[in-house]
Amino acid sequence: MKMKKIASLILAGCMVLAASAPALAAEESVVRFDFASVERLPISYKPFSDHITTPSEQDQHERELSLLCPNFYKMAGISGFTILSNEMTGALRIEDPGEGAVRISTGNLFGLGTIYWDAEEKGPNLGAIASIYLSIRGGKKETVLSIIMSALDLLGIPGEPNMSCAGEAKRGHSVAYINKAGEFYHNKTWETAVLVQQRHFFEHTYSVSTVGGVAKQLAVDKTPENGFSAYLIENKPNFNNNTFISNKTLDAYTAQKQTGVYTPYYEKWF
What we know:
The protein is α+β, with helices and mostly antiparallel strands. The chain has 6 helices and 13 strands. β2 (82-86) and β3 form a beta hairpin. α1 (2-19) packs across α2 and α2 (55-68) crosses α3.
């Protein structure tokens, strides 16, 4: 019964969206989303001021909205719109950011799936190569033995390597990127006018040694999912200069309005 009441309120909210959006109360809250980058509409609302929605209730509410107010979902699929929600009634409406609006969007870290091996050593006797340093691009030097011992510790393998047996170690790096984009709003669409990049370097090691009489291969990826941060971060000149990005984006919008074309501005590695 309670869910039917909630559904009725949602339907009323959709009617407000379609017919009387400006009449929302002053208690509405504003949250901005880029709907082009999400699969599920991230709406949060409360049918009553003292009602707290659980995750399962939230899913149910969204299913009800998609059935009761399909036009709202269709409208909300337009990238860059603003969701306005009234906390007391659950009524919803969408606000256009306006022709010529400018925004800066920062993407997620992404890699290209390549490890570049910088240095390696191997030999029939680990003791003979244990103190040799291996370098990594932009990082500190580390000995063969240190690489092996660190890998054993990180992988939770007890014991120490047999220095009389064969051994090897190598160090490498991978690169992941973050894009920052300057975008302008034109003809109901966000256009990317500026793209600048930041890149993150992560360490990778591979080693072979004999521990407890058994040869072991030890591979370590020092990446975020394993609790490691980048050992080196590099920025293109204007990655942290939001004023520059905004001005360049506005220049592109002006060119688009005056001539119908604009030239994107890039600072990137690929």
